[in-house]
Amino acid sequence: MFGFKKSVEAVLMKRLRIYFGLGFVTLLSVSIFFAGCTSTRIPVAERPPLYSQEKIQAVDHWDNIAIYVAERVQKTYEDRKDLVGRPIYIQPPNDRPFTKAFSSLLHTQLVSRGMQVSKEMEPDSVRLSYNLQLVNFDPSRTGWLPSLADVGLGVVNMVTGLYTTHSDQELIVNSSMVEGNRYAMHISKIYYINDDDWALYFNPVLGDEASESSRTVHLKNR
Q: Which of 41, 50, 61, 189 is the most exposed place for a label (fewest CB within 10 A)?
């Protein structure tokens, strides 16, 4: 009886060693497989840290953009002594409500800072221009399961009204100042806009010359 029990234990130990050996080999193979996938194919997708992005919902928000651009223009003039005293000529890209209003707001902000702004292009004028790019994301990009941080922002939104909803339309405002054939300044800012407000920025008639200096990029989730 004792000999039989001992032989059974030996068989069991042998099988356990086989199973553990197979498990180790399997685990090692899986690890090597995934290591190969991550090192030789594409990076693992990871969301960037959560942060806020401004959303344009009023004309006063357009004025905030004008203030930002005017401050950068003023800083450029302070850094470039060769530009001091030279007038600035603003060239709007099209005749949409935003661009017409933004041009006036930018004139106001620059003049209020004591800078010379010309109504017409002069021989010594520094050209200040801006253009817009609309990026239209697929609605499915946000997913259906919110993170804890998203839930936290939602609570803050309900309590303080500080945050608003994101949108699928994002606007890139590029502003540049050219002296001769070289950039003296080039800045870009990104904003959310309400999905139904895109016609304030772009001509709804496709192919219209007034909209040629603006571009729309459609991006879909994959």
A: 41
Which pair of tokens denotes residue 93? Answer: 């890209």
> Are residues 130 and 101 in contact, defined by beta-carbon separation less than 8 angstroms?
no
Q: What is the pLDDT of residues 188-220, one digit of tens each?
A: 999 999 988 999 998 876 544 444 444 445 444
CB neighbours of residue 126 within 10 Å? 22
Three-state SS annotation for the chain: CHHHHHHHHHHHHHHHHHHHHHHHHHHHHHHHHHHHHHHHCCCCCCCCCCCCCCEECCHHHHHHHHHHHHHHHHHHHHHCHHHCCCCEEEECCCCCHHHHHHHHHHHHHHHHCCCCECCCCCCCCEEEEEEEEEEEECHHHHCCCCCHHHHHHHHHHHHHCCCCCCCCEEEEEEEEEEECCEEEEEEEEEEEECHHHHHHCCCCCCCCHHHCCCEEEEECCC
- Closest by CA to 54, choosing from 220, 170, 157, is 170
Residue type (1 letter), 129: S
User: Could you report the per-residue pLDDT of 114-169, keeping only the tens digit for each?
Assistant: 999 999 999 999 999 999 999 988 776 655 445 555 555 555 554 555 566 778 89
